[in-house]
Amino acid sequence: MEEKKFSETSRKHYMKGGDGPDSYARNSEYQKQVLISAEDLIHQQIDEHLNIQIPRFDPQNTFRIADFGCSIGPNTFYAVENIISPVKNKYEKSNQNQTPDFQVFFNDLVGNDFNTLFRNLPSNRKYFVAAAPGSFYDHLFPKKSINFAHSSIALQWLSKIPKEVIRRGISKGRIHYLGGEKEVKEAYAAQHEEDFGRFLNARADELVDGGLMALHMVGFADGDAFSLSGIQIEYEILQSCLEDMVELGKITKEKVDSFNLPHYFPSESELKALIEANGSFCIGKIAKLALPARSKLGPKGLTLQIKATLGMLFEEHFGNEVAEEVFKLFLDKLVERPALLDHKYWEHTIYFVFLKRKGVN
Amino acid sequence: MEEKKFSETSRKHYMKGGDGPDSYARNSEYQKQVLISAEDLIHQQIDEHLNIQIPRFDPQNTFRIADFGCSIGPNTFYAVENIISPVKNKYEKSNQNQTPDFQVFFNDLVGNDFNTLFRNLPSNRKYFVAAAPGSFYDHLFPKKSINFAHSSIALQWLSKIPKEVIRRGISKGRIHYLGGEKEVKEAYAAQHEEDFGRFLNARADELVDGGLMALHMVGFADGDAFSLSGIQIEYEILQSCLEDMVELGKITKEKVDSFNLPHYFPSESELKALIEANGSFCIGKIAKLALPARSKLGPKGLTLQIKATLGMLFEEHFGNEVAEEVFKLFLDKLVERPALLDHKYWEHTIYFVFLKRKGVN
């Protein structure tokens, strides 16, 4: 094994730990809705694509599942149950009720709050638990050791801000590529191409032949990449809060200029092209998930949800106090202008992507 | 897989987390000396007993190592390197320099500070990392999935205080069986028999046929179980500190009466009998390790070491403030009576136990 495999990526960000009122654990209902809306698709795809003859069934086999970007729960436990149940069904139907042992690997960055994840493990779980810390853009598991890879609402996090954006300062005055200059978008797209390619390469090595992968990815409907969208309105409001903080003299304009959100949202055709270019996977399905409008969370719920996922980024760059104020301003703006809560502003496109590892069998 | 496998034992205790001056991470030099003194033995035993023909070498094989009771580092990383190096050597000699991928599972109780463990992972490691939280008296891994099991200075922790001791109050006035009534010692021995039996059963299921296990266990030289020993003096002083606290009116006598240390130290003949009764392992070696005298740590070093490993037990039962005062009194006693530092009081017997899983091959 080569040492370079363990180079950590530069991203250090993670969800808000613990289980306090601000925590990701308490503010991730929307992410759970994504899992719920993908439930039927995952059952159906597993039933169609899981090849339980490879390898030939041996009661000593272990079925290994990895959730990439698991955060601290409880959604990851729900996701895992949602995989084990149809896999078990298929084994039971085909093998006189014999099923393998299940071992689940929970993956997230080294800085993720694994202590909280472990404390919250369901006591009635029927799988062996392990955690694998590290960036999912690197190799995390031995070759051909994973049967099912899963990742929900995590791959929009790039490994880093594109170098071009920082070096040339082309994103000054904006915290994201959405609605910005074309060259900024291109730099983000190039970073995503590199990162998603690394993700696919690592998983291709780690999955057994015929192994399966289900991804829920935040994206754009094709041809819609520059339109006003739920994500863009969220970022525009956050940006205006930062501008308010500059006006109030609490942070400098330069501090805002050097802040960029490390997120990218691909279109369906981009995703397909990247998966095909990688070449290790057959596409079982790419579908848009039907989701409840986020706007139903109301001003406070929306703010808590966004703070639980983006708050740590703001804290790291601006410090805790400024981050707190930014999200207070964010909430104020939503309360003052109820029109902002129009559901059309808060729609995401979430792609359900189901892949099967090609192999000799 | 049966649900009961996941019943957690009642023990909740673990080493002092974080990496502050009181932490286990900074006060475990003695435990590292144990690993160092076992180094040659482990290399020699691996070379003698590792069967690399089973299964036939396949570069896609993974060699899985689990360290039971890993705490938060850094000793566990040292222990793991000390296993990988001779395993790799043997593979290289026999397979034209081909070696498998290594995957290491770090195990400790759910309450262990895994966040700190992950932050301290060596950046130049050449193995895949996973953590498996839970009591090592339960099943933690799928059947036949581990090649090498390791545990250093952890198996003296019983899963709980023997029921008899609590129910009948036979240990009143003492915090441990050492130097106490015969029936207390017998209750502790029975609990150890049950616990160590569970440990061996779980590992027997989890290890591959021919899989190896190296244990470092604190014990007594045969026939010496009731003599004054390093551990006994440590506990006697701790007990006298608690008595001082009662005198000072800071805790009640009843509070001390209900406090018992959940530790047991078997003799070599007890260990052999339990391993043979289990029947799943061949004994490769049982040897006493040569160790530097703990007394060299001096009063402060000794106190910090003992506090890092036992402090959480005292905190849980008496609260933080009382625990702090107890260890201050402990230090005072060592400083006031330098004779207590005589090295004969601080000798431990540590057994090196090397086992091989029996199997069809």
Automatic annotation (TrEMBL), chains A, B:
Residues 1-24 are annotated as: Disordered. Belongs to the methyltransferase superfamily. Type-7 methyltransferase family. It is an enzyme of class 2 (transferase). InterPro entries: MeTrfase_7, MeTrfase_capping, SAM-dependent_MTases_sf. Residues 1-11 have a biased composition (Basic and acidic residues). Transmembrane segments: none annotated. It comes from Handroanthus impetiginosus. One of its GO terms (biological process) is methylation. The lineage of its organism: Eukaryota, Viridiplantae, Streptophyta, Embryophyta, Tracheophyta. The keyword Transferase applies. Its EC number is 2.1.1.50. One of its GO terms (molecular function) is metal ion binding. This is Loganate O-methyltransferase. Keywords: Magnesium, Metal-binding, Methyltransferase, Transferase.
